[in-house]
Amino acid sequence: MNTSLPLNLLLLLVFAYFSCFLVLVPVFAKVFLSIDCGSMSLKPRTDNNSIIWVGDGPYIKTGEVHKVNVLADESGFDSSVMSSLRAFPTRNKNCYSMDTDKEPEDNTTTERVLIRANFYYGNYDNKSTPPTFNLQFNGIHWTKVQTRMEGITYEEVVFLWKKGTNINVCLAQTKPNNIPFISALEVRSLDADVYSYFPDDKAMIFLDRYALGSTTVIRYPEDSMDRIWVGNNISTINRVRSNSPSINVGTDDKPPEAVLRTALTPLNSSENISMTFTINRKVPIIGKAYFSEVIKLNSTQKRSFNIVVNNHLDTTIIFPKNPVIPPYGGVLEVNMINVTTFNSSFSLDFVRTNDSTLPPLISALEWYTFGETLVEGTNPDDVKALGVLKKSFIQLQDWNGDPCLPSPYTWDWVGCDSDTDSPRITALYLNDLGLVGALPDFSDMSALKTIILRNNSLMGEIPRFLGSFPELTVLNLADNNFSGAIPSLLYNNGFLKLK
Description:
- By secondary structure, the protein is mainly beta.
- The protein has helices spanning 79-82, 257-260, 380-392, 488-491, and strands at residues 9-13, 16-20, 32-36, 45-46, 52-55, 64-67, 84-87, 93-98, 110-119, 132-137, 140-146, 153-162, 167-172, 181-182, 184-189, 202-211, 238-241, 262-265, 273-278, 285-291, 305-309, 317-319, 332-339, 345-352, 364-373, 414-416, 425-429, 436-437, 450-452, 457-461, 474-476, 481-483, 497-498.
- 42% of the residues are buried.
């Protein structure tokens, strides 16, 4: 996501036409992990937003570290964090694996988490060619990242996480000479009710999040869940501030009070608010608007308006239903479901009702869409057995993420079946890797059909467990230092091609 927004927002207030750039959001704080990618520091560092950053050494072993000249601070982002990055010129995917080490504090086994990945190119490679590449998480495609010459690009996803399992974020190269890189990676737990209406089996891809009445970025600590709400600096709109002593934000998605303290209204109080959004996604969009009355109305005042999406030309569902009457000292959340685009654009209007004495107002907006269906991931017995191999051989220890998913981004030395939810590993290609020592028992990979161990320095007796794979048809042990007799289970297997 861009700080100048992938959803390039245009606000049209009355007869004025101008563009407005805003941003995104994170979560509550059971898991609150902030990784400074490319940082070699072993000591945590606290930024001006009271966010504690750690180096990425414990989470990844591949890639190259580069320093970047950050030309100017971007509001809401720490320039020190953005001044380093990790690039990945080798492998089809490179993965961060985050073991949160969090024991469940209650009986729940799942919780929603938000991941934010940040990218600041800064021409670190002196090629003046910001790369494009893919992001993946936990075995599924997340989004395509299009970085920029200047400014920060970032992407966010929310999903239902199984506590106790690793969170994996992978960068995948999709074009020649487009080297993936990353500047920062953040993981935040969400409060139990936040975005709980979203299907449990789907990823929730955030497009943008706006604090329409603010001129500055609002995030942690004002938002305890560290969501990023980006304001605007447009001079041709009217910003108003709430005079309520307090604002009750006890709704499901809990927008921070700081976002609701200000609102946008038209300059001419007799006019409406009109917005046009441009977006390059064809999927249906889901929106949420937040409203809070800024003054205590007297008996002669009324603020009432309708939300109109695409001039009523599509099947957008709005609930609660129109009209909108913002509460004083509280917040009203309005959902817009199944917003469609016309020529990559859609419109949003706030139209005052005939009996309204005051113009419409709005405090904040969020836009998001459906991502891919979550997957179980590679068979857990296979993953456990891979862990045994990785522990035994240093050459394998820098491979992270799901070994099979998403296809075709498998690890270089494994082959998998075609199951897209929980595939089995069917082949190991461990030839020519310089492996030294005895083979550990990896017999839990019961679906193996091919094992290639040629040209290493493996030693000791040929393990008997190699004869226990029911589907094994190819076993190559040549050019190693094995000793002793060939186990009878291998020698007498007429279906096995043994070398």
